[in-house]
Design a protein that fits this description.
By secondary structure, the protein is an alpha+beta fold. It has 16 helices and 14 strands. A hairpin with an 8-residue loop joins strand 6 and strand 7. Helix 13 runs parallel beside helix 16. The longest helix has 23 residues.
Length: about 475
């Protein structure tokens, strides 16, 4: 499998100018490929004139293959133009999968377009375990030849699943499957590696998509896997494909996408939400993710393995915020919330009558009444109790399985008080709120899974595996 090195060099074209470059991880250093001082100054002037925050892809050559670098920050350069060195950070590097005339003839669109983007390996292997492909070996086939173990795999149709999704108005086919990397003899002591199976998620499109869509699709899939893993610090590889004249997908480029995580999740397949258990609801999950409606949930999840079994006051604050957002998302469906709107109308009517009877006071200018009832709503404690009531059987099943304390008003009030005391007085008195945190996190997930259509009868078991 083609990989992009952490460090390499080559040439880039920016406008009509050519540059030599060196890449060290995400840091790109470029120099005008000119020897004449006057020409160098002209090139630097051109760079200065296009030095904006607008995102763009810069194309070049690493001595072997075509490459593309995304730039979404300004060029860092000497203001006085005394030094020709220019630097910037790139979030995405793309390298062509081939460099021959045959490869170029296979392209059905410009190289900077793709019909499919595939995310594979890494933490995807936990939510869609490659072991699903292996057939149980019968006793007579376990050792066909002394010292040789027979391994049989199911055909791809056995483990491949597809569904239709929509992202920002663009329809795509969401496919989970497995593929095998090639074997190699370049291993320790010349032993032969027969290759490995890896899980993959592919988004394929009828219309070719430009490179500028890569980051968006990456963020959508990353968020989906993070939710199923209950951690933000996840990783996987990415490659691009175009659809050939025969209707098959051909790899056209590999991607290196940078993140800021100090380490990556090591959760095993029995500690995540399996993809196949929620596969029918993936379109709804993607819809919520694309609309930004799970961002508050993602804010709660750890970004570092060191934080997986820790609870900070920031976690408490984030969880309270996420639960309130979750409640507000379904407000129109609850009759009790309509009562608040009736109350506001009644208050406004009373205010209007008072103003009419007492014209000597301008209450809108002389008092804070304009904002006093603007945010009139149920308390957070009441909102969390309402969410619990809507998912009571799910949460109680989780609580019983994990031997955690049952939710009631006093426990929720204590938890919210912990958040409020930190906000208003800076005091922190944990008490028994650590156990309440685990239950309320499960409640948050239960609400999200229920809203996407996952059957309530299996949610508590999914949560028991996850937490």
């Amino acid at each position: 499998m083609l990989k992009i090195d952490d460090n390499f060099c080559g040439y880039l074209n920016i406008g009509d100018d050519k540059f030599a470059f060196n890449i060290s991880k995400s840091l790109v250093t470029i120099l005008p490929a000119e020897s004449d001082h006057k020409k160098i100054q002209e090139v630097l002037s051109h760079i200065r004139s296009r030095n904006t925050d607008d995102s763009e892809f810069i194309f070049g050559y690493d001595g072997n293959r075509t490459i593309a670098l995304e730039r979404n920050t300004k060029f860092n350069m000497d203001f006085l133009q005394l030094s020709p060195i220019i630097k910037f950070r790139t979030p995405i590097i793309i390298k062509a999968a081939g460099n021959t005339d045959y490869f170029r003839r296979q392209l059905t669109a410009d190289w900077d377009y793709f019909h499919a983007i595939t995310f594979w390996g890494g933490n995807i292997n936990a939510i869609f375990p490659p072991a699903i492909a292996r057939k149980p070996a019968s006793s007579e086939k376990q050792a066909d030849v002394e010292g040789t173990i027979a391994i049989e795999l199911h055909p791809s149709s056995y483990y491949t699943r597809s569904t239709e999704i929509e992202i920002d108005g663009t329809r795509a086919t969401f496919t989970v499957s497995l593929f095998q990397t090639e074997g190699t003899s370049e291993e320790h002591m010349n032993a032969y590696n027969i290759g490995e199976l890896s899980a993959s998620i592919r988004l394929s499109f009828e219309e070719a998509q430009h490179f500028d869509k890569i980051e968006r699709y990456y963020q959508i899939v990353h968020s989906l896997i993070a939710i199923l893993t209950a951690q933000n610090n996840i990783v996987f590889d990415v490659y691009l494909s175009q659809k050939g004249q025969d209707g098959l997908f051909y790899k056209t480029g590999v991607c290196k996408i940078f993140d800021s995580f100090p380490n990556y999740s090591v959760r095993k397949s029995h500690k995540v939400i399996p993809m196949l258990s929620v596969f029918d609801h993936v379109p709804n999950m993607v819809k919520l993710i694309a609309a930004g409606k799970v961002q508050s949930i993602l804010e709660v999840l750890p970004r570092d393995n060191m934080d997986v079994h820790r609870i900070s006051i920031t976690n408490v604050q984030d969880l309270c915020t996420a639960l309130e957002i979750e409640y507000n998302a379904n407000k129109p469906k609850r009759p009790k919330d309509a009562l608040i709107e009736e109350l506001k109308k009644s208050i406004n009517k009373t205010i209007a009558e008072f103003v009419q009877d007492k014209p000597e006071i301008d209450i809108h200018k002389s008092t804070n009444i304009a904002s006093a009832f603007k945010y009139l709503d149920f308390t957070l404690v009441d909102k969390i109790l309402t969410l619990y009531g809507e998912c009571e059987s799910i949460v109680d099943g989780f609580v019983a399985q994990k031997s955690l304390p049952h939710i009631d008003e006093s426990r929720i009030r204590s938890f919210v008080k912990l958040r409020n005391e930190k906000t208003h007085s800076g005091e922190i008195n944990w008490g028994d709120n650590g156990k309440t945190y685990a239950v309320l996190l499960a409640l948050l997930y239960a609400c999200m899974l229920k809203n996407t259509g996952v059957d309530s009868s299996i949610i508590h078991q999914l949560l028991a595996n996850l937490f």
